[in-house]
Amino acid sequence: MKKTILTLAMSCFITSYAQAECGEVSIADMNWMSASLLANVDKFILEEGYGCEASLVPGDTVPTSTSMVEKGQPDIAPEMWTNAVKELMDNAVKDGKLAYAGQSLSDGGEEGFWVPEYMVEQYPELSTIEGVKKHAALFKHPEDPEKSMFMGCPAGWACQISSENLFHAMNLSDAGFTLVDPGSSAGLSGAIARAYERKAPWFGYYWSPTAIMGRYPMVKVDFGSGVDKDHYINCLTQKDCQNPRVTMFPVAPVWTVTTASLKQKSPEAFDYLSKRSVNNSQMNELLAWIEDNQADGEYAAFHFLSEYEAIWTNWVPADVAEKIKKAL
To answer: Would the keyword Protease turn up in this protein's UniProt record (predicted)?
Structure first.
């Protein structure tokens, strides 16, 4: 009996110590769905698996990164697109204020010119820009059958400049294409959806991960150029790019960023965050499910933890995985 009581007492002490060691952890609930999903997954796993007292706080790229550097809060940014705040992030890591944990998206954020998968199945050449130009007549402009349509990026977005510069660099107008402004994000995604419903031709700009990419399989067109990141940043993203050259869009790194204090006080939690990563295909699928079910971040997290056990159990030790399974 004494042995049993001692064992229970030790167990309670170990649990209490683990909770005290992790303590309070704040997580940025960024205002886009993939990041909100990851924030809610982190909250559940850190609470149930590691004994943390986790809370969500509203977040966005610039205010969250600035607050982490200047105030040390929040402790975790689950999905930080670091290109937008690269200098701030790199300097803060160098100064010992922040730490890069793992890549939230193992593929990084992906931009490109795309065609529907069903078109490539019929015309394999369409997977390359030369093939698209050769078969330009397939992509008839709805208002002028004598021309072909390339769907660009909505006006006012940064990608409008880069996609327009690439349109000129590839001499797509000489191949018969006209650059069309979709008007909005909804207009762009709606154009892809309508094309898929009719199995109609479509060629244009889009990005991943998104629900659209999860619902409608698309093929990214190979420009045959490789990636020239310097030219992309210094010329193609600038309105006054005088001599645009063809390059594939560089991958946008997407990291989980933490404060250095979190890494120090809870190395086990940091180790989990360094392993917590999904690829674009998985996130596209999840975002399509979220949109179809009108789910919020919390509901989406429970769906992910319940249905994607084979993925998340690789992020944590076996004993932590068992705690999470019981909590679910």
So the answer is: no
